[in-house]
Amino acid sequence: MSSAAEVDLAEILEPSARLQAMIDAARGAPDTLIDPATLPVRFSRLKAFSLSAAHYLLWSQDLSEETLALRMGSAVHAGLFADRPVVCYDGRRAGKAWERFHEHHVERRAVILNEKEYRTAAGVINSMRRHPRAMELLFDGTAIEQRIDWTLGGRACRSTPDAWTAARNSDLKSARSTEPRWFAREALKRHYHAQMAFYDAAIEAHTGRAPDESYLIAIENVAPFTVVVLRLPDATREIGHKIWRGWWEKLQLAEAAGYYGGYVETDIDLEIPEWETLQPVDVEIDGELVEVA
């Protein structure tokens, strides 16, 4: 390797080390970061490339914290798919009684909810069970939460679709609203179509056939727990495929360089979007708001 090439490599690795040190300090990571290249690629991490490679590096670390949304999602999946116990603890989560309860149920992989959370989860699950089409998509001849270990270009991947057959891929999502127009925006923002396309690729790698159809089963996590089934048309599925493949290319570059950079690496101009310049602006003059075109 030439000295010039060595200098270039050093210029790449040195800022990478600084970036890792900053992440360590900000999030309390261990001194030695987990190398993302040693982990199977999961969509939950791959979608970090919608932000930056630095976010992928961060999300590859063992820094997960249980949030209410994650806990409720786990409870709904566990109760509906009957793969884990869901239990209610209605006391204060402190003291010897709580410690004994927690230790016993954690050993059983149980999802522990308080009384309010338990009632909400029960409402969601019961509403799902009363929706014939949703139950058909989730349980009619499907493999339920079956982990698929697969490879793409020799790179290890891991996916766990909610419910699938060789011909159909279905995933359960909860949201505060399933009004179709609102949920469509939420689904695109959360890249659900890219997730479904990634799962399609996993199923194809596993069975030799890509599913013919993909569905999102959306249920509200507040009363009246309304269920909406959304089919992903071919155009939406194709866009989802292009999105995750774009992230995949960025992942390949980051792993090859051993560098997980941020949003941009050079100075950029602060430009005003055209649509901002076309909007009227409210300016306060002598205590009154005046619209300036």
Which secondary-structure class do the elements indicate?
alpha+beta
Counting DSSP H or I runs of 4 or more residues, the number of helices is 11
Mean pLDDT: 87
Q: State the domain count.
A: 1
Q: Radius of gyration over alpha carbons?
A: 23 Å
Spatial sequence of strands, sheet with the most strands: 3-6-7-8-9
The CATH class designation is Alpha Beta
Order of helices and strands: HHHHEHEHHEEEEEHHEEHHEE
Major sheet summary line? 5 strands, mixed
Percent range for β-strand residues? 15-25%
Query: Helical percent range?
Result: 40-55%
Shape: globular
| Strand runs, count | 11
For the terminal residues, how far apart are their CA atoms? Answer: 60 Å
Here the CATH topology equals Lambda Exonuclease, Chain A
The CATH architecture can be named as Alpha-Beta Complex
Low-pLDDT parts are 1-7
Provide the descriptors you would attach to this structure in a database record.
293 residues, alpha+beta, Lambda Exonuclease, Chain A, 5-stranded mixed β-sheet, two-stranded parallel ribbon, 11 strands, globular, disordered N terminus
Notes on the protein architecture:
This protein is of the alpha+beta class. The chain has one domain (1-65, 131-293): Lambda Exonuclease, Chain A (Alpha-Beta Complex). The protein is built from 11 helices and 11 strands. It has helices at 3-27, 43-46, 53-59, 68-81, 95-107, 115-129, 132-139, 180-189, 192-207, 234-257, 274-277, and strands at residues 86-88, 111-113, 143-144, 148-152, 155-159, 163-164, 168-175, 213-220, 227-231, 281-285, 288-292. The strands form 4 sheets. Strands 3-6-7-8-9 form a 5-stranded mixed β-sheet, with helices on both faces. Strands 1-2 form a two-stranded parallel sheet. A two-stranded antiparallel sheet has the order 4-5. Helix 4 packs across helix 6 (115-129). It is globular. Residues 1-7 have low confidence and may be disordered.
